[in-house]
Automatic annotation (TrEMBL):
GO MF term (any one): calcium ion binding
Subcellular location, record wording: Membrane
Its membrane topology: Single-pass membrane protein
Organism per entry: Pelecanoides urinatrix (Common diving petrel)
Protein name per Swiss-Prot or TrEMBL: OTOF protein
SMART domains: C2
Keyword Ribosomal protein belongs to the record: no
Length: 127
């Protein structure tokens, strides 16, 4: 209740659900061309350059992610991620990142930010 709110944000805000629908990705790059991939190939004969992609979404301090699509350059998810946050949100953008799942360290393939001010209506119903 003691939160300092920016101008134009009402002191009483309602809870809202934000739905992010993730459909698919196209043209993902070949991965695992690093030194570690060459070490794997030398020791265990594994030469896997396919990606195991998933999408991670970050919004208002919350994280959500899709399932991992094994060995796919054109993954199809048709999944949605739901966030619950006060409306209007104080966060002005959504971070969407395609990542390659790896046993040691997941790697970001691509990142995009969606500016909520560009996709919402003006006024009380969509500020």
């Amino acid at each position: 209740r003691n939160l300092l709110l920016p101008d134009g944000v009402p002191p009483e805000r309602q809870w809202a659900r934000f739905y992010i629908k993730i459909y698919r990705a196209e043209g993902l790059p070949r991965m695992n061309t690093s030194i570690m991939a060459n070490v794997k190939k030398a020791f265990i004969g594994e030469n896997k350059d396919l990606v195991d992609p998933y999408v991670q979404v970050v919004f208002a301090g919350q994280k959500g992610k899709t399932s991992i699509q094994k060995s796919s350059y054109e993954p199809l998810w048709n999944e949605q991620i739901v966030f619950t946050e006060m409306f209007p949100p104080l966060c002005k953008r959504i971070k969407i990142q395609i990542r390659d799942s790896d046993k040691v360290n997941d790697v970001a393939i691509g990142t995009h930010f969606i500016d909520l001010r560009k996709i919402s209506n003006e006024g009380d119903k969509g500020k």
